[in-house]
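Two folds, back to back.
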Amino acid sequence: MASRLQIEYAIARGRTLDWMVENLGATAKQIDDTVRYLDRLNAEKDCQIRPRSRVPRKPHGTSAAYRRHMRRGETPCDECRVGNALARAKYRKKAA
């Protein structure tokens, strides 16, 4: 039997009804009650999903952009590789 919190998390992650029944052991009534509960909360708060961050991303050619490429599993662009190499060289020089 699944808890409401588990079902809420599964809904937030975009899981299907079948997935919740198979993997969480949730009943259709539990899922329906949770969906109604979330709808009521959203209606009361009139909430909107906020963006993850209000800080703009660093541009390409910086070490932050290089790390963003790596975090996403992408091959870093040439600008980012050069920017990261320069930042690392500057850090090593400063540390020595």
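---
second:
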Amino acid sequence: MTFRDLLTAFAAAVEANDGEGLASLFTEDGTYEDGFFGAHTGRQAIAVMLQRFHDTRIGLGKVAHAAGERCLDALAQPKMERRREYARL
């Protein structure tokens, strides 16, 4: 899976509230660190966090998707331009 594929799958899972799909992007003992909800270790914890995200609407739903698209746009740029784009994210 390319980095572009990973970002696309991540954003799609978040937008669709697909906790299992999001969790599958991590190793069994992987940790997702979230600015709103903190660290979540393990696929089950990651899936539960995503459900809580959608239940509470903290983060306003499509933030991750928008950020993912901005990252994908940045990947299409030359290396120096990418560095500047990530700095703005």
